[in-house]
Amino acid sequence: MIILGVILIVVGVIASIPVLYSIGIALAVIGIILAVLGNTGKAIGGRAHWY
Description:
The protein is an all-alpha fold. It contains 2 helices and no strands. Keywords: Membrane, Transmembrane, Transmembrane helix.
């Protein structure tokens, strides 16, 4: 999710499409939050690991 977010940010900046830029930021932030929570050992949404 983080990688997809970064790709959308780059494409949004290069193609000057602000919607892609905004979606990319949202995906990257959500991916980072899930990665941090997963590394702390907390179950997220009833699952112990997110792959």
